[in-house]
Amino acid sequence: MVARESQLVLGLDPDPDRLWPAATAADSSGGSPGTPAEHAARAVAEHCRLVIDAVGDQCVAVKLQLACFERLGAPGWTALQQTTQLAQQADLLVIADAKRGDIDISAAAYAQAFFGETPTPFGPVAGIAADAITANPLLGTDSLEPLIRSARERGAGVFVLVRTSNPGAEEVQELGLVDGGSVSDRLAGMVARLGQAGLGEHGLADVGAVVGATIPDRLAALREQLPHTILLVPGVGAQGGMVESLAPMFAPGPAGGLISVSRAIVAAHHKLGGDAAEAALDEAARLRAAAWNLSVSTA
Amino acid sequence: MVARESQLVLGLDPDPDRLWPAATAADSSGGSPGTPAEHAARAVAEHCRLVIDAVGDQCVAVKLQLACFERLGAPGWTALQQTTQLAQQADLLVIADAKRGDIDISAAAYAQAFFGETPTPFGPVAGIAADAITANPLLGTDSLEPLIRSARERGAGVFVLVRTSNPGAEEVQELGLVDGGSVSDRLAGMVARLGQAGLGEHGLADVGAVVGATIPDRLAALREQLPHTILLVPGVGAQGGMVESLAPMFAPGPAGGLISVSRAIVAAHHKLGGDAAEAALDEAARLRAAAWNLSVSTA
Fold it and tell me: Which of A218, A149, A146, A153 is nearest to A187 (CA)?
């Protein structure tokens, strides 16, 4: 992250009807066989490859929205694996934006899917080997521990939803508690506790928190409760968040936060005009510099 | 449900190392080619087929734990689709136990994955066509609406997590609120509101609630707040819940609740001895009768 002078995470949530034209053309032109799902999944993987080629140098990670791959079925899952490998070959971390949360035995199965492998009578089946996953904490600590344990074993991480970026987030997450604070404050406490055993370089923990860019006042308050936590901050761009209002995320230093941007980069050409790859690079470079400069001036 | 005199949901969370012996043998013996993931996924699909064959007549639905399929990658997703189709051919409803919850645009993508189809330049890609999905409400109403809208269009349903069955559930779900009640009470209110537009036969809504069998006192209290809601109740058996303590779920009548049982049926032969299929049928028949008799005596 520091070597690249970037805290920018490239969000990839590919919509088969809005891929970069070159990605769709690549699969349409050859007359290659396959079902619509297979064609669409190949085009999605090619789109992700093109976007990573264009802007990967500006970024430190990619965040893959699982829903966008799952809707293409088995071929979509193959595209997810291909994109994961491709991003890692480009020295990018892969954050599986899965928002999973389930009881212990099922959480352990998700850990096998995303971090580990599944023992079978036919030999072990490797998961997608993500570097991090996003997780939903509604089911409590015992639902997160199997993911964290598995992540920790391989030097990966878990980002727990604490305060999301969507308009309806406050409906549950900001409910006021009898004992003071709100649900999201309590989730922050859970994250701090779970991360204590996993403090790494820069004094930062391997259990991170997702906090939306759209509510800078809450981000500042939650950062005070989470001094050792890497914040993954979505919501810049299409959802209305501004990099300039995010200074508190870098209170622990430049490694203290990751800014995830999806549509504002991938669809930059709709706003800026011109070639998709060039527009994406321009926007990614601008966002990378804005975040880095903010982090250096904050620390 | 009434025609079958059953409220029993067969939970399928297949572990490739604990499949019924005949399922593993079927794929091992033929010397068929494939990767470990392909072999394991075929064995998982065969296991699900055998279990459905054995106990399907006692049940009204199957609940498929997505984590168990995802950990086998693309072949696992194929097994998920095959099992969905097979269960529906056996006149069983399919509940995708996905516990998804994401911001609006991603929730819409999950709706395409589970209920609808995804438009692509290569033609539409069908999702798995589940009859219901489980959903996590931490992100609020706007994260649930795309799933509910899509479900409602095709006569399917959404079961929202309100109070889960795991030991750590109370950590977040039972936090006391300044305005009275707990988080789970508030989630129940959300479910009631979201279901108002989808009241169907028996006066029951198409937005259901997941409430664990392990906390019968909370189940009774939440039922009072949710008089028109179908409760999906996991946690009977391996997690310690007892059918006999669940009478309040049937307050609206026999169609008011579904009892989901996984390991207690599929692994019944570990406890009862004998053939896996026979033991599963014995246990499923016992549970079906216990639930039906309870529902008839409650109503």
Answer: A218
A284 class by beta-carbon count within 10 Å (0-12 exposed, 13-18 middle, 19+ buried): buried
- Domain-embedded: residue B238: yes
* First and final C-alpha spacing in chain B: 15
Within a domain: residue B2?
no
Residues B232 and B194: beta-carbon distance below 8 Å = no
The whole-angstrom distance between B256's CA and the closest CA on chain A is: 24
**CA-closest candidate to residue A188, choices A158, A215, A214, A211:** A211
CATH code: domain of residue B158: 3.20.20.70
SS (H, E, C) B121-158: CCCCEECCCCCEEEECCCCCHHHHHHHHHHHHHCCCEE
Q: In chain A, whose CA is at the least distance from the CA of B68? A: A109
- Asked if B164 lies within 8 A of A103 by C-beta distance, the reply is yes
Between the alpha carbon of residue B116 and those of residues A18, A197, B29, B267, the distances in Å are: 18, 43, 38, 34
Residue B3 domain flag: no
Domain range spanning residue B187? Answer: 8-298
pLDDT in tens, B179-226: 999 999 999 999 999 999 888 877 899 999 999 999 999 999 999 999
pTM of model > 0.95? yes
Q: How confident is the model at residue A29 (pLDDT cuts 50, 70, 90)?
A: low
Domain count, chain B: 1
